[in-house]
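On clarity, I found the account of how folds are encoded harder to follow than it need be. For illustration, here is how one protein appears when written out as sequence plus structure tokens.
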Amino acid sequence: MRYRTRTSRTAVVLAAATALAAGLLAGCAEDSDEPGGSSGGGGDGGGGKGKTTLTVGVFGAFGLQEAGLYEEYEDLNPDIDIKQNSVQRNENYWPALLTHLSSGSGLSDIQAVEVGNIAELTGTHSGKLMDLGKAKGVDKGAYLDWKWQQGTTDDGKTIGLGTDIGPTGICYRKDLFKKAGLPTDREEVGKLWAGDWNKYLEAGKRFKEKAPEDTAFVDGATGVMAAVHGSGKEKFYDAEGELVYKDSAGVKEGWDLAAEFAEAGLTAKLQQFQPSWDQAFSNASFATVTCPPWMLGYIKDKAGDKGEDQWDVAAAPKPSNWGGSFLTVPEAGKNKEEAAKLVAWLTAPKQQAKLFDKRASFPSAEAAYALPEVKDAKNAYFGDAPVGQIFAKAAEGVPVQPIGPKDGIISQYLADTGMLGVDQKGTSPDKAWDKAVKTIDNALDQ
């Protein structure tokens, strides 16, 4: 499982990275404030005995090294040594990467990019990165179309190959559902809200009627908002790259629905990835939370033994995505061809299936879903839920949503400056919206 800095609501995930499953951050070769390390690639220096050293720049516990993939590749290619340079937080990694791309120095042979940053590369920096769509061993048809398109420029140059995605389900507590008179079977639970986020709201109202004392239906309004925003065909930018969040029907739907959750008293008023949120898992303080595959380990860690087989996972009202990354190869690297081969191998379906098996990073390669590591995957803590099948179905339904260069900023301020006030302070939705918009406009120099 991999936890690292993610954009928008995902940006807070990284603030909690060190609190996740034991050993999660172990195994990084280095941890610095720079995304590169050995400038322009390793050449054959540092590898010794005529070997070529390939450097891989990542953020957080990215999972590739921890899953043993580098070691496996080195065994298959004895003339290659792989060195990973890790920066713990993306907010430090990303600005430095942009600086090094501009100068053409200080780069690793391979650089990881978070999904919230990929649009900035495809839009303004694609000339500094290789076209990996033409790399040997890369099969476009093996990937989910929407994920492939995220790493591809308008003129068809694919600068990033997807490593993972975050298709979402709804994790729920069976014990609390039972006490509130709601079904507990995951298929029946999914039917409560299938196809409509408003049905999720109605299920919450039913829960509240008989809910155990001091429990809420959902953790917080900001999580609901972000899930709805991720399930639409358009969010903050339109297909032409124009900023449209103020007038977007999808943004309005997410904002209004989240506000209804807050005003109806269905939330535990929690901010995700804060200590109080962590403690609420342990105390069984809320019944549902939006969860991508990597969230399952987080819940297990925070809810502990007493939460085992109390939690389960059902389909979300509509498919949404939370998280995911890409691997890129800078043109300034000295080992571009070998780096491209490594990227192609690391992101191939077989390796993505291994990464899911070892780290719960869900494959962006659709061809991996038929492999046993994914197809047959179950999670004992969640009542043997067939998580491979649940999340594969969700992944195939995620909409192809335009991503803009400032998605992360907009998401963060809509949540932290806007909806959090509605949820925790009782601020009116209109007043909170105006405050969030003003903050966003200032941040974007609008």
